[in-house]
Specification:
- This protein is an alpha+beta fold.
- It has one domain.
- 53% of the residues lie in helices and 22% in strands.
- It is built from two helices and two strands; from the N terminus they run ββαα.
- Strands 1-2 form a two-stranded antiparallel ribbon.
- Strand 1 and strand 2 form a beta hairpin.
- It is elongated and about 65 Å long.
Length: 74
């Protein structure tokens, strides 16, 4: 794709995509397999967990804001 190779990771509702341009040494499936080692996958997993936490915190703030709007009933 336009001299780029993309590697995409998905987990439930979240995804990460890493793009590599020509000249970065990632041009074949074998190159990707070598690049995506245990350390890389651990970092991806850490980021997916952080994305989930961020999403849950944002949803929590939204819920508490909506609840506060109807706090007083007359």
């Amino acid at each position: 794709m336009a001299n780029k190779l993309s590697v995409k990771f998905e987990n439930s509702l979240y995804e990460q995509t890493y793009k590599f341009r020509d000249g970065q040494g990632v041009e074949t499936l074998e190159d990707v397999t070598t690049l995506v080692d245990e350390a890389f996958l651990a970092g991806v997993q850490t980021q997916l967990v952080a994305m989930h936490r961020l999403n849950q915190e944002a949803l929590g703030r939204r819920s508490s804001t909506e609840e506060e709007e109807f706090e007083q009933i007359i």
